[in-house]
Amino acid sequence: MKFTLSAAILSLAGLVASTSVPRQSCPQASRFGLLSVSPTTVKPGDNITVTVDLNCGITNFGIVPKHLDYTIEVPAASNNGHEPPIVLARRDFVAGGANTDVFTVKVPFAFYFAGAPYEVALRNTYPIQGTDGSEVLIQGGVLAGLTINV
Q: Is the distance from CB of 118 to CB of 147 less than 8 angstroms?
C-alpha cells in the first residue's frame, strides 16, 4: 500500500509540475533566429534578401540581440584555408520593435571557389548578466545554405 500511495503522490506531483512550467513553443535550435536567404543560388553582384525571425529566442529564451552580424562562409570541414568569412552586414537590433530583421544586400565581388559549399552565417550577439551583475556579451548563431556560381 505504501508503494502504491507513494507512486500515486509522485505521479500527481509530476503532473502538477509539468502544467506549471511554461512549455516552449519553438525548438531550442531556433533560439538565435530562424534564418532564410532568397534566392539561394546566386552569382557575385546579385541581390539576396536575408530574413531572420527572432521571435522564438526573444519570447521563449529571453535572448534579445544587441547586434546581428551576417557573413558568407565556407564550413571549416570544407574550407581550403583561403576562404575567410565575407562580411555582408552588421545590424544593430532595437529591442521593443519588430522581432524580425529583413534586408537586401549584394553578394560581394569577392574571391569564391567553384563548388564550395557556402553558407550565410548569422551571429546573434546578446547580453547576459555576469557573475558580478555586469553585462557580458555572448554570441550564438545559425546558418542558411547558399550556392554561389562562379
A: yes
Torsion of CA 145, 146, 147, 150, to 10 degrees: -140
User: With helix as H, strand as E and coil as C, how does the chain read?
Assistant: CHHHHHHHHHHHHHHHHHHHCCCCCCCHHHCCCEEEEECCEECCCCEEEEEEECHHHHHHHCCCCCEEEEEEECCCCCCCCCCCCEEEEEEECCCCCCCEEEEEEECCCCCCCCCCCEEEEEEEEEEEECCCCCEEEEEEEEEEEEEECC
Q: What are 46-64's pLDDT values in tens digits?
A: 999 999 999 999 999 999 9
pTM for the model stands at: 0.81
Which amino acid makes up residue 25? S
pLDDT at res. 26: 82
